Amino acid sequence: MSVVQRNLRVNGSRLWDMHMEMAKIGPGIAGGNNRQTLTDEDRQGRNLFQKWCENAKMAVSIDTMGNMFARRAGRDDSLAPVMAGSHLDTQPTGGRFDGVFGVLAALEAVQTMNDLGIETKRPIEIVNWTNEEGSRFGPPMMGSAVFSGALAENVANATQDHDGVTMAEALDAIGYRGKVATKPRSIHAFFECHIEQGPYLEREDKAIGVVTGVQAMRWYKARVLGEARHAGTTPPSSRKDAMTAAARLVLKIDDIMQKRGDAGRCTVGILQAYPGSPNVCPDRVEFTVDMRNPTTDELNLMDKEFRRAAEDLYVDTGCGVEIEETWFSEPVHFDSNCLDAVRRGAEEHGHAWRDIMSGAGHDAVNVARLAPTAMIFIPCKDGISHNEAEYSSPEAIAAGADVLLAALLDLAE
Ligand SMILES: [Zn+2]
Fold this sequence. Notes:
Elements: H1 12-23, H2 40-55, E1 59-62, E2 68-72, E3 82-86, H3 100-116, E4 124-128, H4 142-148, H5 153-158, H6 167-173, E5 189-195, H7 200-203, E6 208-214, E7 216-225, E8 229-230, H8 242-258, E9 265-267, E10 271-274, E11 280-281, E12 284-293, H9 296-317, E13 320-329, E14 332-333, H10 336-348, E15 353-358, H11 363-367, E16 373-378, H12 394-412
Parallel strand pairs: 3-4, 3-5, 5-16, 6-15
Antiparallel strand pairs: 1-2, 2-4, 6-14, 6-16, 7-12, 7-13, 8-11, 9-12, 10-12
């Protein structure tokens, strides 16, 4: 019976150096990274990660979705592993920390265990999930979705990028379609470190966010239907302009968010007008809506308000609205034991911490279907992410990795 060692620190400069080394692969144009999934840059990043894992005496296996698992044996290697990781792919204009931090913090935790000669009862696995970002192939979090059984592998494999290349072809092209079947298996606990991608931790001077869950999300496609008319000859009284009607509805959607203070999120990210001529009043405007809230009940209310606003729009403008819901994701609540392990880790290192809900989706959401799961957030400068300017300090990432190490040792013993 061995006692878990407390208050161990990772090697912060080694962890920082690994980030900077990884960032050299697929450099962006403004100091960040463009290492999109299953590109040659992704291949190089994966190769570097594999080399580091092998140097740390871990065996790397790759599944048919290209998910990479590096395994450190436990004293009882028949037990289910404790797993940690995230993703190495980036957005086209991505940062150096989103995803990368979660993979490298796990690697650094294992390297620290090696340095200190620490063995754990359970094996420890580090994972690099394929295609978390979803910018080249949709949907996002694809590797972990297939692994957890939330997405069929043949559906994932058939998705195409802008050039018509399928996911399966891209996996083959970079030599990362592995032999291990991608399917659920027993995991004792899963931890994902990630930058917050929002402003709260920095604003409140907290080093650690104990991520209690991920908010509910709903996506829509909205179609506003008017009448195409000559821009010069049609007086206001004769118009059914889909663009001005859509603009009103977009502002109503913003109201739905604003009236909820900090709790609601509404975003119109893509908007297209048809037929698309400068001197024709559009007869059709299509736009996407992304709505989020920590609770499904409140998200349902937001849905009702959105649909009512669409009905009112017809009364006010004569333009009808078709609303198609394209995605719904239930809120996720992480495991209380895993969360307590993270809180204990923060306490023993004297890091200021707070509980926090994640505004973004993460691979941990998929893994939470299979295994007790928690996430650890660290602050990032000005809350900026999915942007090449994304930054977290060497001290911030070391603090997150220290807490991860503590939580891994807790759960692996
Ligand atoms: Zn990420």
